[in-house]
Design brief:
By secondary structure, the protein is α+β, with helices and mostly antiparallel strands. It contains eight helices and eleven strands. This is DNA replication fork stabilization factor DONSON.
């Protein structure tokens, strides 16, 4: 990138070329990493999407309002998932109860909903001072709830279809994409892609291996550790596991460290560090689940994968 205030302005064809690569499925995805947030653009067909999609994380209310003002439609997938899970859990719980217990729990649930609607001011009624304190209106409550999402996993936004191209133009003119002060002042965002593009620079990941001996029952066993550092994209991690699976006879343990701004489960997390123990029987963590936390550990034992988040 060139330029300080508007890093992409000197090469207007660059972002269009990247999106053309996405559309032609010549580039599966690419990252735009700024000092405040990370944008991930994905080609159609990835993660079950029939069109080009983009994910931004983390976001703030100001950024989301600016996107709306720019005509960019988006969704909050993690927030919607949480609401659906809450509704399903409430429905399932109510179905298990009957009679007075069901009525009592329904009243309690309604009370909680009322508390959410009035911003948690229902306790003023119990004290008898609700008329002496001005209650915030619904707009203020919605603004408060919107701000509460800032910098949280639920703040990740998803843009799809033609709005991804509008998002590109929005990022080009976004002043907050470049820091105005601090150690990163004036530095343009970093563009990361698994395929080459004009103006790109090929960087090799740093790898370091160490051989040590560990004590076992019958004596000592050779253990090799492999450290890979740098911007490790998902396809690189996949290639590492495919290579090590037969080479290590179906057994190794891996520790993963993700880039903070890609921590929510956005399907394509960006890793900064991978630590692998070789020639060591892998442990079997239980259960193997992935929630809102990123993938932290990956284990292979007898050619079967298990993981922890």
């Amino acid at each position: 990138f060139t330029g300080k205030n508007v890093p992409w302005a000197q090469d207007m064809a660059l972002q269009q070329r990247e999106c053309v690569l996405l559309k032609a499925r010549l580039c599966p995805y690419f990252y735009v990493c700024s000092y405040q947030f990370t944008a991930l653009f994905r080609a159609s067909g990835l993660a079950g999407n029939s069109s080009i999609t983009a994910l931004l994380t983390p976001t703030t209310r100001g950024l989301r309002e600016a996107m709306k003002a720019g005509g960019i439609e988006f969704t909050l997938p993690l927030l919607e998932e949480r609401r659906k899970s809450k509704e399903q859990g409430s429905t399932a719980h109510n179905q298990e109860t009957d009679g007075e217990e069901e009525e009592t729990q329904s009243e309690a649930s309604n009370k909680e909903d009322d508390d959410d609607d009035d911003g948690g001011f229902s306790w003023l009624k119990e004290m008898g001072v609700q008329d002496k304190i001005k209650k915030p209106d619904n707009i203020s409550i919605k603004e408060r709830n919107s701000v509460c999402l800032d910098h949280k996993p639920e703040s990740v936004v998803c843009v799809s279809g033609t709005h991804t191209f509008t998002l590109i133009n929005f990022l080009i003119n976004c002043k907050s994409l470049v820091a105005g002060a601090g150690s990163q002042a004036g530095l343009p965002p970093t563009l990361l892609a698994p395929t080459a593009f004009r103006g790109a620079t090929l960087h090799s990941l740093k790898a370091r291996s160490v051989n040590v001996k560990t004590q076992v029952r019958a004596g000592y066993q050779d253990v090799c550790s492999l450290e890979v550092t740098g911007p490790i994209m998902p396809h690189s991690l996949h290639a590492l596991t495919r290579m090590l699976r037969p080479a290590q006879r179906g057994g190794f343990s891996t520790a993963l460290y993700t880039h903070t701004h890609t921590n929510p489960p956005i399907k394509n997390p960006l890793y900064l560090f991978v630590y692998i123990l070789l020639f060591l029987p892998a442990s079997l963590p239980e259960p193997s689940t992935l929630g809102k936390s990123p993938l932290r550990q990956l284990h292979l034992n007898n050619y079967s994968y298990t993981w922890k988040s």
